[in-house]
Design goal:
Helix content: 10-25%
CATH superfamily: Beta-grasp domain
Structural class: alpha+beta
Bound molecules: FE2/S2 (inorganic) cluster
CATH architecture: Roll
Low-confidence stretches: none
Distance between the termini: 26 Å
Shape: globular
Mean pLDDT: 94
Largest sheet: 5 strands, mixed
CATH class: Alpha Beta
Number of helices: 3
Order of helices and strands: EEHHEEEH
Radius of gyration: 13 Å
Number of domains: 1
Number of strands: 5
Length: 103
């Protein structure tokens, strides 16, 4: 697998997010599912994702930090933001991120 190429929207910096309590840095200006692909290129590439709001296999629940309201979203349409925390995720994502050894 080659490095991040045209898969990712152009970015100048990485933003900090957390997935199931672990911190990661991902390219700003990209959707969360792409950010996850940045972290687990093989896993996410082989997932059964439509990338287009149809399959719902990419569902997550996130918040924006301690004490903020949780929101349900589909990660293929969720723009990453500094401090975003993924607190729940669909089984398909969990499986595709298994290389990260998340809780
Ligand atoms: S990847 Fe299918 S709805 Fe997000």
């Amino acid at each position: 697998m080659s490095g991040p190429g045209p898969l990712f929207r152009p970015y100048e910096k990485l933003v900090k997010i957390a997935i199931m309590g672990r911190e990661f840095e991902v390219p700003e200006g990209n959707m969360m599912l792409r950010a996850m692909q940045y972290l687990a290129p093989e896993g996410i590439s082989y997932g059964r994702f439509c990338w287009n709001e149809d399959c719902q296999f990419c569902r997550v629940v996130y918040d924006l930090g301690e004490g903020t309201q949780p929101h349900a979203a589909i990660s293929c349409k969720l723009m990453v933001k500094e401090g975003m925390r993924i607190i729940e995720m669909a089984q398909e994502i969990r499986y595709c991120l298994r290389s990260l050894n998340l809780k």
